[in-house]
């Protein structure tokens, strides 16, 4: 039996229970043998994972859902898949949660959010419905989940399709602010421009449209996906994914960017962000999209990203699965700048530690040999200098190369010689600016994914990588300066 190579629409939309058990077994066996499976990231048991959904804290546990198509590594009939955790690093698999089984979501349960409400968790999501001509309508829907993870969908949509917007109308984020509930929605207007809509409610069921959120004067492309507002350190951060935004408005190389704007406040009276900043990329790497953040009851703003992009094929596809979620990041604003750090709970994964130290020189220093690919590397270089850190290295010319020049304040991530190549149309190098002076890196490596936190979270660069078997050393070379740090092996998720 073979996995499917060319997917038809019929196959993508076949209800899950209609798939033959032999196919499902073969798919799961193939996934389990994949050498790209990670050890401490959330990944789908089979098929495709995309956006994080419903990230929340309810009934004493963290809840995280994701967009799932379990039958293959393609975008098909979507559901929400559910996981819970007590420590943000070990995630218990609860299984499929919201599935496309009602008249308002028959062709897919799309992205959305969650908010504790009385003793339940309120889930807001988009339901897709296709007619016989495959025309789509998008409904914003609600459901209530209880402490046993039992979900009851509301009978009536929260928000109906609107004539002012096309069928690209989705991804509700519900939050509470100043004693009201608000809902942000990604939309495309009839002029095919991307917008964010704001709705208000006092009961989570009846929603009033306030209008288009004012946060920029610029054209944001043809569609905005996954709008997401969080409140931190007396400011607000609006995260979103503007599709088709012009490259003069934002410097980006991925097919679609995941961006943010910082504002002094959210002003519901005139439906705007006060004093919005310039638009910025959330991640400097290759593979982050659809990040979802929420204000947790412990005061933190926590975020998870889809590590993957729309419309791009990855080497794991042929093993029957695609994509993963990022580790959980904590967002703060410090000196008007968005900072993203790994949550402190990530330390729970640390096992053995080794210390590294030395002087940068043209001669290559081997920081580690024959590494198993699940570790954390913390490295500080104490002065302005230039150099290159190579992960998954075979020699100094092959591996994932992180070139830095802290005299000029630039860095690049290059995956050209790091194993299998993919997404070539969008280039193999990402260049970005960093602080001048000393450099601090905290890097999480997990088999086929690398998350790089730069200068204590001022930048993050996330990248998939599909290394060759020989790519397993960590090398460092450079001009001069003292380096020091640690490498911890990390345990698997329990
Ligand atoms: C973003 C997105 C969302 C949509 C979901 C469908 O990646 O396209 O806009 O709700 O994925 O899976």
Major sheet attributes = 6 strands, antiparallel
- Kindly report the average pLDDT value: 97
What is the helix content? under 10%
The radius of gyration is 22 Å
Q: Helix tally?
A: 2
Bound molecules: beta-D-fructofuranose
In terms of DSSP E residues, the strand content is: over 45%
Oligomer: single chain
Pfam family, one: Glyco_hydro_32C
Pathway: Glycan biosynthesis; sucrose metabolism
Function: Enables the bacterium to metabolize sucrose as a sole carbon source.
GO molecular function: beta-fructofuranosidase activity
Can you lay out the helices and strands and say which pair or pack?
Layout: H1 9-12, H2 21-32, E1 47-58, E2 61-69, E3 79-85, E4 92-96, E5 109-117, E6 120-130, E7 136-145, E8 151-153, E9 165-177, E10 180-189, E11 194-201, E12 208-212, E13 223-232, E14 235-243, E15 259-263, E16 265-267, E17 272-274, E18 280-281, E19 288-295, E20 301-307, E21 321-322, E22 324-325, E23 329-334, E24 337-342, E25 350-359, E26 365-368, E27 374-381, E28 386-395, E29 398-405, E30 410-414, E31 429-433, E32 439-446, E33 449-454, E34 459-464, E35 473-478, E36 482-490
Parallel strand pairs: 1-21
Antiparallel strand pairs: 1-2, 2-3, 3-4, 5-6, 6-7, 7-8, 9-10, 10-11, 11-12, 13-14, 14-15, 15-18, 16-17, 19-20, 20-22, 20-23, 23-24, 25-36, 26-35, 27-32, 27-36, 28-29, 28-35, 29-30, 30-31, 32-33, 33-34
Bound molecules: beta-D-fructofuranose.
Function: Enables the bacterium to metabolize sucrose as a sole carbon source.
GO biological process, one term: sucrose metabolic process
Organism: Vagococcus penaei
